[in-house]
Every structure is written in C-alpha cells, then in structure tokens.
Amino acid sequence: MPAEPRPRVAVITFPGSNDDRDAALALTSLGAEPVPVWHGEQELPDVTAVVLPGGFSYGDYLRAGALARFAPVMEPVRALAAEGGLILGICNGFQVLCEAGLLPGALRPNRSLSFVCRDVPLTVERTDTPFTARCRRGQRLSIPVKHGEGCFFADSELLAELEASGRVVLRYEGESPNGSVAGIAGIVNGDGNVMGLMPHPEHAVDRLTGSTDGALVLGSLIDAARRATTVPAAV
Amino acid sequence: MRATVLVRPKPGILDPQGEAVLGSLRQLGFAVDDARIGRLVDLELGNGDPEQARATLERMCEQLLANPLIESYDIELVEDP
User: Fold this and answer.
1) Around B38, how many Cα atoms within 13 Å sit in the side-chain half-sphere?
2) Does B11 reach chain A within 8 Å, measured CB to CB?
3) Strand runs (DSSP E) across B32-78, as ranges?
4) What domain range includes position B34?
5) ipTM of the complex
6) Active site residue A203
7) Which of A13, A91, A117, B4 is surrounded by the most beta carbons within 10 Å?
8) A170-226 pLDDT, tens per residue?
9) How far is the alpha carbon of B52 from chain A, nearest alpha carbon, in Å?
C-alpha cells in the first residue's frame, strides 16, 4: 500500500510568534508537510490548510492579535477561509482570528490576571468538524494551555447563537482556567472551516511531554487537509 | 491638532485589572465603589479640518484602537491655538 500523501499545511510566523516551530514539528510527526510562511507574504503557497500558531504577535500591543490581523498574509488567509480552506488558530492564532473577524467574540485578560500554564481537561462537544473528527463526542481531552489573555467573551446574544448553532467545539471541564463565558475553549465559524482554540494541541503530541490528545485535533486537521488535497480520480 | 482617544471596557465586560485595583484602593482605606481600567492614546494629527479629523478618528477607533465588541471609546480633539 502506498504511503498516504503528506498534505501541505502553511504555518504562519508573525513577529513574536513562538509556537510556529512546535506546530511544524507536530504536523510533521503526524503526517503533514508544514510550509513556513512569513507574515509579510502577500500570497500563500499551494496549501489547503493554515495554522496560525501561538505566541505574542507584535508583543500583544494594543490588544492580543489586534495588530497581526493587518499583516499582509492575512489577506490570502481570509481569501482561503472564504473558499472553504481550513484555518486553525491556536492561542494567539485564536486571538488573531477573533480580531480579524474570521471568528466571533473576543479574548480578554484571564479573570485571575495570572498567566496560566498547565494541562487542562477539555470536553469535545462536536466531532463533525474538520478539527475534531478523530475524537468521540463527549471525549475528555487533556491539552495544555499557556496564556494570559484567554478569557473568551461573547455577549449574551452571541453566546446564545453559538450554543444554538453548535459552534462550541471544545469546553473546559470543571472550572475554566481563565474565566471564559460558558467554559468555552474552542469555537468554529458558521461554515465550520475556521477554528480557534486556546489550548495547544501541538504541545500534546508526544508521550515524552505527557498527553498525546493534541494529536487527535491536529490529526483531524491533517485528515481533512489530505481529503481536500487529493484530486478525485477521473471517471 | 491633537487628539486623545479614551478606550474603556464596556459595562458588564469583566475587567480583572479594574477589580484588582479596586481591591488595592480599598485595602489602602479609600472608599471606592468601582474601578475600571481602559487605555489612552494621544495622537498628533497636523493641521486640517476638525470635522474631517473627527471622522478619521472614528474610523481609527472602529478599525484598530478599540474592539467595538468589548470596548467603547471617546475622542477629544484639541485644536492648536
């Protein structure tokens, strides 16, 4: 049996990104070909998926993600999202997606005002997304968070809409580490092809560092990217 | 012209910094009912039509200086004598 094709996944580096290498390592170990892309690029390489990694783009100045959203590369990212391409924003990437309007809501400083860095238990609410297809509904995942501004905020109207349309994909189990409304840890957009989450799946793919539950999230993304890459055989 | 933009967390938005400062002020013995922390942006704009400047400042706030979902803003425009 021939080896499965390695789908190409762009990993964007903004000035201040610091999880881009871990994201690329995780993607490689799980069967993808990561393609590093600098934030100043006007075009994306030929990819079907993009990861916006964690870190502190532009030093988190003004608001986390507020300046990265205007980086040149965000134009083609926006265009890919509009075409149905897969976009995963992790931590700072989630903040960038919210500021860019590709996801609703906003991320505010943690309720505790402390930087939180630990494994957190999560519940998978949706498995019919390109980011969680390898999970079971209700499955408990352990994935680390490390952030100072991860308190997801949606006003009551938006929250009701997110809940009613099933766009909450991951929820903190028990007490939220940051004060997020309704314990929200990860959401998708209306079309389901853009996801943001505060926990770091790329830091949970190797037994050496504990949990490997992050591989379920990134593996799902790679499966979906591979499907999108594969050209259907001519009839 | 100079402008000062004041950006505030909207009412009802969790403001842990404000809460922490409120607690500290009370600990110091000050009678304070509430404290909220926002952001101040001073801008130098050069000379021009104040009305136009105000419209431009509104756009700056909507696009970048404030996140309208969670923050409100006030613009103070000071014309140079």
Assistant:
1) 19
2) no
3) 39-44, 71-78
4) 2-78
5) 0.85
6) no
7) A91
8) 999 999 999 999 999 999 999 999 999 999 999 999 999 999 999 999 999 999 999
9) 24
